[in-house]
Amino acid sequence: MYYLLSMKYTIYLILFLLLFSGLFAQGNQFTVESEELNFKVVKIIGGLDHPWSMAFLPQSQDILITERSGNLFLHSQNELIEVFGLPPIAAIGQGGLLDIVIDRNFSSNKTVYFTFSEKESGAYGTALAKAVLNGHNLENVEVIFRASPKSSGGIHFGSRLLINNNQIYMTLGERGVMSNAQDLTHHGGSVIRLNTDGTIPEDNPYGAIFTYGHRNPQGIAFNETSGEIWIHEHGPKGGDEVNILKAGANYGWPLVTFGINYNGSII
């Protein structure tokens, strides 16, 4: 499924990108205002190295922030405090410490989920872990899913997370090998759905795989009005997509795409 953004929402998207980049840009404080769209952008944090994800903690203004290079920080009361206890992280290319989300019951269980790339026998893959945040430390760290098989190279790890109905959705890129996205024995190029304890839901269509045929999905959001889950994925040149997830659906990569190779050749 493909959707064209209206001019209004294109403007919103541009403003969001400006906001995100502004939050983490280095330099002096700045403020951007717009009366027409009723927003204000104020930089609150600077000096970060490739910030990849944020998780806002409830009942506070604290923010957990991942850096792709392998650091986790807590921004609290205008201070940036390192959080320790991460597992070994392989920061290679587009891989490293990636997404982070908090459990729906975080106020009582302090549980967080995060994704990262890990190395084993010279190959790399995306993993999903859960842990308990205790002050500035992660405790009881447990890897609950590892994408397999691992492969060489540093691109297309995917890796956005969404928790919905006590299930966690995890996007995975096809690791730069197009055929992986059509291979149901390979986790690459799919959206994984698990229970929050790491077990596989009985109604999943293909083991841990919920949908497949993706290139490198790096955005996921729940539409509270429709109950749908939306993703966006990085396509080749001219081939970015916005899709609505349907259990068991094949989203076509690389059999169907509006994109072309970066050298101009046809896919």
List keywords for this structure.
single chain; 267 residues; 4-stranded antiparallel sheet; 38% strand; disordered N terminus
What would you note in describing this structure?
This protein is mainly beta. Helices cover 8% and strands 38% of the residues. The chain contains 2 helices and 17 strands. A 4-stranded antiparallel sheet has the order 3-4-5-6, with no helix packed on it. The chain has a 4-stranded antiparallel sheet with strand order 7-8-9-10, with no helix packed on it. Strand 15 and strand 16 (229-233) form a beta hairpin. The longest helix is centred in the first third of the chain and has 18 residues, at 7-24. It is globular. The protein starts with 6 loop residues before the first helix and ends in a 23-residue tail after the last strand. 33% of the residues are buried. The model is unreliable at 1-10 and 17-28 (pLDDT under 50).
Give a nutshell description of this structure.
This protein has 2 helices and 17 strands. With 267 residues, it is mainly beta. The longest helix has 18 residues.
